[in-house]
Amino acid sequence: GHLHNSEAFNYGVETWEAYKRGGLSKDLVEEQEKVQEADLLIFQFPLFWFSMPAILKGWMDRVLVQGFAYDLSKAYDGGLLQDKLSLFSFTTGGSKEKYAIRGDIRYLLWPMQHGIMHFCGVKVLEPHICYAPENVSEEKRKEMLTAWTQRLKTLWKEEPIDCSPEWYFK
Amino acid sequence: GHLHNSEAFNYGVETWEAYKRGGLSKDLVEEQEKVQEADLLIFQFPLFWFSMPAILKGWMDRVLVQGFAYDLSKAYDGGLLQDKLSLFSFTTGGSKEKYAIRGDIRYLLWPMQHGIMHFCGVKVLEPHICYAPENVSEEKRKEMLTAWTQRLKTLWKEEPIDCSPEWYFK
Predict the structure, then answer these.
(1) Confidence band of A101 (pLDDT split at 50, 70, 90)
(2) How much is the pLDDT for A3?
(3) What CA–CA distance (Å, rounded) separates B157 from B160?
(4) Which residues form the Flavodoxin-like fold domain (chains A, B) (predicted)?
(5) Which residues, other chains included, contact A69 with Cβ-Cβ below 8 Å and sequence gap of 6+?
(6) Which of A11, A89, B27, B121 has its CA 20 to 30 A from that of A124?
């Protein structure tokens, strides 16, 4: 559709205005409907460069627009996607030991769990991390899948984690 | 080109093998040549969700492949892109005060500065952050540009920052 302000283009303002007038593209509206209907969002991905692959980051950038996921002074505990849970489930290239050295694993969770989900008011379950599946035995890989299957069965009984800095940076 | 292993597709292995046999697509080779020639990499972007916009994350994902930017046991201080400097220069939506509350600004720098640049052996200069340019006066915006112009003049005299966890999480 047309730009809200064609004099000075502002991506955030344009998506916000497009959301309000129902002018977002169809694929985004469909994704937002999925989010709206979901009680739990599970993000499954291979960790790329301490973060999500660009295509998943693009989903966050494009789908979680102002007006839909947060609003002026409606962020964090006041975010618009309350009463939803989220879970980051990912595989890594490096071993658990490597990510433990500097506390990297906790630090890299902060932007995703706190900066995105918590900002939108979504509660966060303990992340599910499979370390270096490509470097372990087939048996170990099967164990990883079994453990994930088991966890999924009782996921609804889990309590959200504390999303305060203390959890990440203690 | 053809896949190195068409039985079990592994994105990391495929890009690594493609790099070694000169089989990466032309746009990636051109970006790698720019990186190779550069003494200093400045990444300028608006902060989206505590991180780079997806398109810039995609640049990291696609350009910094194994064999080019790092290799087996050649990472961090042994990374392949040594003797280069980098600088993350970005604008934010929120005010400096908001990012200071939980130490967010330091925490979100970790994946980019440590997890990507330091991993590749690239040294990191102090980030350049313009807080909430859209919410300040035109005069203040001009001051921001002047300050950046001034900093660029003496950038070569700056010392890289300490990329240890202590710098981020003290």
Answers:
(1) confident
(2) 92
(3) 10
(4) 17-152
(5) A63, A79, A80, A81, A119, A120
(6) A11
